[in-house]
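input
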Amino acid sequence: MSTGIVSPGNVSPGNVRPDVATARPHRGTIVLEDAVVVSQTAFDAAQYLLRLQSPRCAARATPGSFVHLRCAADLPMRRPLSIMRADAAAGWIEVLYKVVGAGTRALSQVQPQQQLSVLGPIGQGFVPHPERPRVLAIGGGVGIPPMIFLAERLKARTDADWKPLVLMGSEIPFPFRARPSTTLIPGMPDAVIACMPLLDAWGVPSRLATLSGFAGCFDGYVTELARAWLSALPAAALAETEIFACGPMPMLAASARLAREMQLPCQVALEEYMMCAVGGCAGCAVAVHTAAGIAMKRVCVDGPVFDAASVFPGPD
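output
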């Protein structure tokens, strides 16, 4: 996801116009809200975790959805950021971002009690299937946040015996203080012990991969770590597994190839440059393979989550 601007005619404060919501059902959950900054935490490599009091957005957010955030009053261009966590009861959302330009640089300067305009949640999120409760969540770089959100929601669900495993890859320091995990993962390479402490505290296993030599991490791409773990699973466990991935396009393509080789279903959350982020401009359209042929789908509202085989169909 990248930068964008919203036309004032698309929304009204608090919700979308009734006629727009009727004509375009995907907009029916999107709200325009003045959120209040609760906290902002800085991590290495100009990464920040921002918590916003945004109750209407928090009530509607799902793993894979995102917000279109106005970063400063003098910057009309909004920035789309994936939601990392949302607490409907407490009314807050969290986004994790890296400073890459003027917008995110301005966002890094906001202080508690400031207000920011939030448009969201936007997009179709991940859809876990109870018949495949062994969830392999693969996040790369800025694709890490939706995997954390997915794991948290699965942890709270009781409709199946969910067993999420979160694998994260990064070539810059991770946006948390990695530590050795207290959770054993059968089939995981012995030396790969670094985890995300938050997930470990939830009882959700996680492991990290990098080419930068960080201690306790897998030395290689995160999809290679996923392959090593999947290859160690017995057939019965593989039959219960589904892959979910978010990150840069090469990582998503590798995840799709891995799923195809292992004959596993796979959902991917795409990142794309955006303008309006509510489906009006079609500037984020991508080619998707359907039963009727190739169709152009908007990443913002038709996605960002798609079936991996429809975006990366592989060789004929």
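quick obs: The domain at 8-122 is CATH 2.40.30.10 (Elongation Factor Tu (Ef-tu); domain 3).
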